[in-house]
Amino acid sequence: MTQPATIRRAFRPRPPLSEHLRTALSLAANGVPVLPLRLGKVPFGNCPACAGNACGGRPNMKTPGPCQCPGICHAWAAATTDPDVITSPAWAAAWRRAVCVGYHPGGAGLTVVDLDDADAMVWARTALPATRTVVTMRGEHWIYRGAMRSVNAVRPGVDIKSAMSYARYLGPGTETMADLPDAVRALAVKEPSRVRPAAHTAGAPAGAGGGECPHRTPAYLERGIAMAEQRITAASSAVHANVYRTFLAVLSTHGRCGCLTDAHVARLFTAAQAKGESPRHCTDAWTNARTTLGL
C-alpha cells in the first residue's frame, strides 16, 4: 500500500547539519551567543525592513530595541543562544552562505584581546597575564573571563572585542582562562582631555595654527612627532593600519590645539612613504583619522 505524500514527507530524513551550524549549536549550548559570518568575515547586514533603522530598534546598534525581525539582522546584535532561532528557516540561507562562525564575547561574559601581529604578541607576553589563547591568521586572540566595552586600536596591532562587538570563532584554544585583568581594562580608558576645541578653518590641515600648544610644551610636541615617525619606521607588518593608527594618535593629542603645522604633517607623510605608502594613501589615512575624531 502506498503511503500518502504527507506521511512520506514527515518521515523524510533531514539533511545533515553543516560544520558551521554544528559549531554554532555547540557554542550556544555553552552560553555563547553566535551568528554566521559572510565573505569577508563580517556579519550579515540588516534586512530591507530594518534598513536605515526603519524598524525603530537598536539605533546604531547601541541599545536593545523592539525589533522583532526573524532573520539575521542588526549585525552582532543578532547573536543568540536560542537553538530554535539558529536552526530556523530564516537563518538557513545565511548558514549556507556563511564562511565561518562568529560570536558575541560580551554576551558570553568574555573579552577578546585581538593581537594582530608579532609586535603585539611580544607586547602582550610582557604586559598581560597569561590566559586562554587562540591562534589566528596573523596573530592571536587572548580570551579573558569578564566583559567590558569594546575599543579598537588601543595600541598598535591591538583591539579589544567584548560588549557590542563580535569575534571569529577559531577553536577552543589552549591554556586556562584567566579573569579579566585591570591591565586590559586600563587600555580602554583615555585620560580626560584638558584641551578646549579650537576653531578650524575649512581646507587647512587639522591643527594648523603654527602657534604654541596651549596645554603642552613645544618639546612635548617635538617628542610626540619623533615617536610617531619612529613607530611608522619600525612597522614590520600591517603598515597601512600602523600609519592610520599613528596619525590618529597624533591628531587625538594635538589636532585641536593649533600646534600642528604643515611641516609636522610632512614629516609623518615622509616616514609613511618611506615604508611604501603612496601620497594618496597618506592623505586618505590622515583624512580618515580626522573624520574619526570629528576634526
Strand content: 5-15%
Largest sheet: 6 strands, mixed
Sequence stretches where pLDDT stays below 50 over 5 or more residues: 59-64, 191-212
> Rg to the nearest angstrom?
24 Å
The succession of helices and strands, N to C, reads HHEEHHEEHEEEEEEHHHHH
Number of E-state strands: 10
Q: Tell me, what's the shape?
A: globular
User: Average pLDDT, to the nearest integer?
Assistant: 79
Structural class: alpha+beta
Tally of separate helices: 10
Q: State the distance separating the first and last CA atoms.
A: 78 Å
Helix content: 25-40%
Structure described in brief:
The chain is 36% helix and 14% strand. It is built from 10 helices and 10 strands. Strand 1 (34-38) and strand 2 (42-43) form a beta hairpin.
What's the helix and strand layout?
Elements: H1 5-10, H2 19-29, E1 34-38, E2 42-43, H3 83-86, H4 89-97, E3 100-103, E4 110-115, H5 118-127, E5 132-135, E6 140-145, E7 151-155, E8 158-161, E9 167-168, E10 178-179, H6 182-187, H7 218-234, H8 239-254, H9 262-274, H10 279-293
Parallel strand pairs: 6-10
Antiparallel strand pairs: 1-2, 1-3, 3-9, 4-6, 4-8, 5-6, 7-8
